[in-house]
Amino acid sequence: MSREKFQAISPADFFYRNREIAGFDNPVRATYTVIRELVENSLDACELYQIPPDIRVRLTRVSENVYQIRVEDNGIGVPYEHIPSAFAQVLFGSKYTLRQSRGIFGLGGKMAILYGQITTNSPVRVMSSTGGFEKYFFELMINIQENKPIIRKREILPNNGRWHGTIVEFKFEGDYNRAKPKIIEYFRQTSIVLPYANITFIDPDGILYRFERVTDQMPPPPREVKPHPYGVDVETVKRMLNATKSSTLLDFLVNNFHRVGRAIALKFLKRAKLNPRLNPRSLMQKDIVALVKAMRHFKGFLPPDASHLSPIGESLFLKGIIREFKPEFVKVVCRKPSSYGGHPFVVEAAIAYGGEIPPPSSPGDVLVFRFANKIPLLYDLHNDVTMKVIRRIRWSRYKVDLGSTPIAFFVHICSTKVPYKTVGKEYIADQPEVEYEIEWALKTCARALRRYLSRKEKAVVAQKRFLVFEKYLPLIASFAADLAGREEPPDVNKLLRRVAPQYAVVGEAKPRSSS
Q1: Is there a shared CATH topology between the 11-211 domain and the 314-451 domain?
Q2: Which residue from 13, 79, 232, 377 has the highest number of Cβ atoms inside 10 Å of its Cβ?
Q3: pTM
Q4: Cα angle vertex 255, ends 254, 261, to 5°?
Q5: Is 472 helix (H, G, I), strand (E, B) or coil?
Q6: Out of 3.40.50.1370, 3.30.470.30, 1.10.8.50, 3.40.1160.10, which CATH number does the structure's domain 234-297 have?
Q7: Pairing of β 66-73 and β 148-158
Q8: What are phi and psi of 163, to 5 degrees?
Q9: H or E segment at 219?
Q10: Is the model's pLDDT at 262 over the cut of 60?
């Protein structure tokens, strides 16, 4: 009788064997994902500390299908002692607090480095400084079986200019020529939601793409937040109980959960028939299960507060859209905070019309820009909740024909936990609460567009009427003068000038935000 061999594998080994789930399933997708993951890490390192991002990306062709990526940022930098694990240990990082950020697993950047290592057998080189008198250089590889960093080289260098930031460089197998459209579109869309960032990209052909900031204004950074009672499970509560210093169950609830005060905690404990003075560490497994179940069924908890989130904001979203498309009309709507499963989120949406927005090239070709925590989502549009909402809305009510109208839709969701459907962070699941907020945001924008188009139609009709006046009023004045026996007809220009403003097409070529 044969025996099965059982063994455990490390996180690095798991993702080495299953790298396609993180967006590294082929050279084309991998090229895009490598750049995106490294740029997102750099943006987080800047934005979380209110540093206007200055990101430089260079992709160099080493051979036919091997490239070298170099990404430099001006972020906060990585402390010396954390550099090896931060870049060469899968599932290690600063993404495990409950806070809005682009990264969610501490995985993407390390997966890019791991992909480079397994396709080219080359190390990653990292230079970083937190702005002190020293900067640190490491040459690293990942021990895949043990998920540990291998330090091949390290140096401590003088940092005379007090530079702060990080430079990451490594080789990987890819296909830039086929990935190029997605990569350029990624940078373009990133500049829409980050008008305060400078992004420079030099591609393997030496072509420079520069997306310059148009404002120094930045949204407030996201803040860390306690878990909400509706968003925890048994394992989370067990870990919280093991770490708590509270001596009573009442204090445990008040000190460890989001928006739970003493009055609400006492009301909940009374409803759950739990003793407020009970030592939380004395709870058994069945007690913890009952506690979590009671939390989910108790309707008295306040909804999550989204003040710790960092949406784009109407002003910055507007600037980004106008800079890229110079639309004839644009309306931005920021919905009030909502929540799903105990996780707060904010939906921001915009509709832009005219200007440099092209009409649809074919039936069903809708121009949609999706963002999550300021990340452009470029794949799987038709599986995304935004597309589901757009298909459901009757656009004819808003004077919009999706087959011919030059229109673009923009939707951004920010949350401590974006409901992605995949580890690759490519599209958002159709959570009912999220779907509702997107629909009402787009409908609000659409109503503003309908008002604008109605005014425009009326103005066009009125202008045609004015042209008739302009053509025939001098003739009428001349005939009237002949009938009255006058040699000179009256001057009608003064009358035409007085009525002209009533027939002008207002705002036709000027980008504007309609209220």
Answers
A1: no
A2: 377
A3: 0.80
A4: 25
A5: helix
A6: 1.10.8.50
A7: unpaired
A8: -65, 145
A9: none
A10: yes
